[in-house]
Amino acid sequence: xxxxxxxPFDMAQSQFDKVAEILGLDDGTRQLLRNPLREYHFGIPVxxxxxTFQVFRGFRVQHNDARGPSKGGIRFHPQETADxxxxxxxxxxxxxxxxxxxxxxxxGGVICDPHNLSMRxxxxxxxxxxxxxxxxxxxxxxxxxxxxxxxxxxxxxxxxEYEVIEGSKNPGFITGKPVGMGGSLGRTEAxxxxxxxxxxxxxxxxxxxxxxxxxxxxxxxxxAQHAIRLYSQxxxxxxxxxxxxxxxxxxxxxxKLSGVDIDELLKIxxxxxxxxxxxxxxxxxxxxxxxxxxxxxxEILLPAALENQIREDNxxxxxxxxxxxxxGANGPTTPAADKVIQERGIFLIPDFLAxxxxxxxxxxxxxxxxxNYFWEKDEVLGKLDVKMxxxxxxxxxxxxxxxxxxxxxxxxxxxxxxxxxxxxxxxx
Amino acid sequence: xxxxxxxxxxxxxxxxxxxxGDGEIGGKASGLFSFQELLKNHLNKSKYTSINIKIPKFVVxxxxxxxxxMKMNNLYEAALxxxxxxxxxxxxxxxxxxxxxxxxxxxIITNTSxxxxxxxxxxxxxSLNEPFAGxxxxxxxxxxxxSQDKRxxxxxxxxxxxxxxxxxxxxxxxxxATKNDPRKEKMAxxxxxxxxxxxxxxxxxxxxxxxxxxxYYPFGRSKSEDGVVNLALGLGKTIVDGGISxxxxxxYPKISAPFASPKELMKNTQNKFLAVxxxxxxxxxxxxxxxxxxxxxxxxxxFDHSNEYSASTFDFHSNKxxxxxxxxxxxxxxxxxxxxxxxFKYNLLINDLLQTCSNYFQSPVEIEFAFDxxxxxxxxxxxxLQVRAMFVSNEIIEIEENEFNSPKAIIRTKQALGNDKISxxxxxxxxxxxxxxxKFTKQIASEVEGFNREFVKIGLKYLLIGFGRWGSSDEWLxxxxxxxxxxxxxxxxxxxxxxxxxxxxxxxxxxHNIAAFKVLYFSxxxxxxxxxxxxxxxxxxxxxxKQFVKHISxxxxxxxxxxxRTGNGIISYE
Lengths: 428, 574
Fold this sequence. Notes:
The structure holds two protein chains of two kinds. Chain A has helices at residues 8-23, 27-33, 82-98, 119-133, 152-166, 187-206, 222-233, 262-266, 277-282, 335-343, 351-354, 356-371, 377-401, 406-424; strands spanning 38-47, 53-64, 70-77, 104-111, 142-146, 214-218, 237-245, 250-255, 286-289, 300-303, 324-326, 347-349. In chain A, a hairpin with a 5-residue loop joins strand 1 and strand 2 (53-64). By secondary structure, chain A is an alpha/beta fold. In chain B, a hairpin with a 4-residue loop joins strand 17 and strand 18. Chain B is 27% helix and 26% strand. Chains A and B meet through helix 6 and helix 13 of A and helix 5 and helix 6 of B.
């Protein structure tokens, strides 16, 4: 997991600097884009169930909104830092730009551990967050969404609080709402499916059939689950999946060479995505160390958990068979590990392209909510596939044309789009 | 057979066909795929320079996605239940297509803006011996709305509708009759551009046709091997559904049909036609196959200038039919200008196609086509829509003269179709001649279906006797059943009454099934040596009866024979 030295914001800035150099951006644009436009830090006082008071630290960062309202999730995590949120908001800007949706980048978070909070306490944090931020967010400014350890329920509490403050119905204020309460069909599947749409296109480009591939997946949350499902439907075989064990406070990998059965695993998975070790063993899974997912003899690696998971210390464990790494999580690869992956010629689908399905579908939800007219699931997923495929092909074409690493090509496309928007607005 | 995979630039490429998925592409699509090879390598297109011969672009959704759809939405239990067709269709509409294909489907809509035909292409469909032709739905969509979202929605609805038709009542009865397991049936779907031209908020080809290299209904001096062609104005559904069309012998296309007078000709030729409705306002109903179809009067084709090659004009001063549409007067569809002037070498093309395809498939064939002629755009587009092998029996059946004239004969005709000898039939279902009136034909159809359904359950084959055209789409000309409603009849008799003497059915679709199932078909006009011994039939004890339809169950089986070479048919008791 995350080391003390690791600073995601430094990493995001160094990635930006590299591409700014390639693009030859002027100093003004560099200064503007390597830092957030706005940052909000605040305290959220909550009366706990035992009658005591606790103040939680909350954040909202709006990195850039030149292309449209800021968009980004709200994370509940005990190790949350302002720098993590800043880095993630910057990545959101690039993510929205790379898939060509008219939104900017934002991110929020609260330092808390929902595992140790009752639902009422979590509701109070959500409502408190909105009370602090209501003047600076909204359908036309900044549209939050669920993220690590926040769900549709959290979004609904936030929406409710916002609507009470505003005195009107504003379903477009937030995305990730439950279906039937302003949510979009397909939103749950969107990120995981989006990852696989890009994997499919990469395989297609390499002339490899999905049936001839195996994959190893880190994480067993929403993204991983849906990615595994679609990849399996396409004929691929997932042989290993890792998940976080809440009780042991560490992760384990679950391996089955004949292929993991997603429905079978879901039956023995808790609400945080933790797989029951004993039951898994009974079902024929080999239970291994949490890092074992990375060293499997597979063609595809899908890091779909947290940031900073493929590092200098474990990148060499990646099998020679691996052809594609698709980053389902945000920032799972450190710059040092990234360099090794690039040198080894592994085809990398960078995070802000691979997992852009989530924000794309959030955008669809926002559009539907603002119209108060909702689409069928086929329509949502059809549009999502078209957007993701077009974005992948644009990045892949540029990477091939200019002999660039995929991450650099994706950055070049998105940063140039955002820089152009800032210029067109006369900001720089 | 290696069908290329779909890619998102397909509709902007020169390619003709491709598939989404890795499963089977079904009978119909396989036929089209072979057709493409045949066109490329075996037909000398340079002989017909004024005709642009093509196969419309099409994409097939392979059967693996049908499997995925059924499994993902847990549809089998409901699909195989006795829920009504509408309920099943609704359940399918409420289900999701596999997420791995919706992106590709979306790009089909992004890249097309003319009407699309969403056609079934199942594994069993059009296989040589058991043609499931016409059992499943084909849905046309206008695909003309400005909003891509709207077009995509209608497209997806149409795909789900065709999927649901795999399990409609008529299909399930068909499975039972043919001893096929519906769970083993897999549906591929063909998405094909509709051939035609936009004419005043409707879209259709000026001519549609079905050509067969073997004629099951040779009349006059025609021979079976001459083949037969049916032509219609507008969409080919008119012919496929057994509606009125212009039938001619392709070896003698200029010989007029034997109608007694111009008035008879006008009365008995096509006077309505079908088109895709591209009016912005349609009756929204995704559960109906004909949601986007519109039936138009012949006079509408005058406004559209679409009948120049198909219509002639009745001149009431001279009481004659004048070829073409140059003068004022009522129109009649005899395809005079197309067939008699033959400006495009169309006749040569049809004969060559029948010959080439028969040689290629080593069997008589049936070819469905559309020929769109539009003077404004100078378009002469001949599109091949489907090809399939026809069934032909090789057995020789002899009927001696004394047998034909036997006093024990209860039905005798010189106009029988098929070629077989049957001696197992003991059950006769007949329409009561004393009660028959053409205004009751719908109810009669329903009563016949009731008997048929029971016989399907117990596997009983029977002799069916009625009046007028079986399977007519016009209820005033006969009994409007579809094949599934009479599927267990082994012998079908169409007859006339003194006050109901219409021309017998020569519909195409229905008879393809009859030939494939070796059903013997007797046309009996009570004149000359043709006869039905009603006295004998009405004397037999009834097993059961409904208002118009009766059932008798004989102790001894009937002797039934048809000689396919002479067309003689006889049914007699022991």
